[in-house]
Design a protein that fits this description.
Elements: H1 5-19, E1 36-42, E2 45-50, E3 53-59, E4 62-65, E5 72-79, E6 82-88, E7 101-104, E8 112-115, E9 122-128, E10 131-136, E11 141-145, E12 153-157, E13 162-165, E14 173-177, E15 180-184, E16 192-194, E17 200-206, E18 209-214, E19 217-221, E20 229-233, E21 238-243, E22 248-252, E23 255-259, E24 267-268
Antiparallel strand pairs: 1-2, 2-3, 3-4, 5-6, 6-7, 7-8, 9-10, 10-11, 11-12, 13-14, 14-15, 15-16, 17-18, 18-19, 19-20, 21-22, 22-23, 23-24
């Protein structure tokens, strides 16, 4: 979810290191793919965004391909039951490159083009309700859609490293800029700094509240980021935070932790 090139490469290297990627293993393992872009939680599943397609992680080093179209998935998010992705077509595909925004209503088995086909390659997507935010890797701009990706408006150069979109209020979101939180209630036409001593690296917004990583700990806020409560502390600095209303994932070094208790208790993926 990082858009500046050096930070994006650093995050990508961290993900590859976390998951122990090599290029000489069977197709059912993480080792089988050459390039991993990110890891996302969807409902109670862990999905891996790779150069060779979208995969479901079913064990620490075991995964299965989702669908048959091996899209090079860069950006990825969900709006309700619908999956949204961006990136590049699979090898030999007749789809335009980049693919713009595509949508799946069957869990990733099939995809349908929605907008910006051949024009935009989102390297991160964040959304909730009918709001979508995407960072276009080609222009460097942050782009916003209020109608689930049908139409878009440009918000200017992206300066955020992560965005958490309100599941309840349209045009409301919290973004991380230089480890600080900014709140918007009008889709980033204006922002207000949320005063806090914590330095944040990742943030997610779910029905139960805001969740964020700071230092070696996971925090929760139920008042749009004004007050934070520490939920868990890890032995090491976490790298990735991803969450649905059913499942939460945090990576620490080479370990992948999941929680079904809203971040109060974690178990290591095995």
């Amino acid at each position: 979810m990082v858009t500046k090139s050096n930070k994006r490469l650093a995050l990508l290297f961290a993900i590859i290191t976390i998951l122990g990627i090599t290029n000489n293993a069977s197709a059912s393992t993480l080792d089988s793919v050459s390039h991993i872009h990110h890891v996302k939680v969807v409902e109670n599943k862990v999905l891996v965004l790779t150069h060779e397609g979208l995969f479901e992680l079913v064990g620490k080093n075991e995964m299965k391909l989702v669908g048959k179209d091996k899209l090079d998935v860069m950006g990825f998010t969900t709006l309700g039951k619908a999956l949204f992705a961006s990136g590049h077509p699979s090898q030999g595909s007749k789809m335009p490159n980049p693919i713009g925004l595509v949508k799946s209503l069957d869990g990733g088995s099939t995809w349908k083009a929605i907008s910006l086909v051949g024009k935009v390659d989102f390297h991160f997507l964040e959304g909730a309700g009918s709001d979508l935010y995407g960072a276009d890797s080609q222009s460097g701009n942050l782009i916003y859609s209020a109608d689930s990706g049908k139409t878009w408006s440009t918000l200017g150069a992206n300066t955020f490293t992560d965005i958490a979109v309100s599941p309840d209020m349209p045009a409301m979101a919290v973004a991380i800029n230089n480890s600080e939180l900014l709140l918007t209630e009008n889709a980033f036409k204006s922002t207000t700094k949320i005063k806090n001593a914590l330095k944040f690296t990742q943030i997610e917004w779910r029905n139960s509240g805001l969740y964020a990583l700071s230092g070696s700990s996971l925090y929760k806020s139920t008042n749009s980021g004004k007050i934070w409560t520490k939920l868990s502390t890890f032995k090491g600095v976490p790298g990735i935070l991803s969450a649905s209303d059913q499942l939460m994932l945090v990576t620490v070094g080479s370990d992948i932790y999941t929680s079904t208790s809203g971040g109060k208790k974690f178990k290591i993926l095995s």
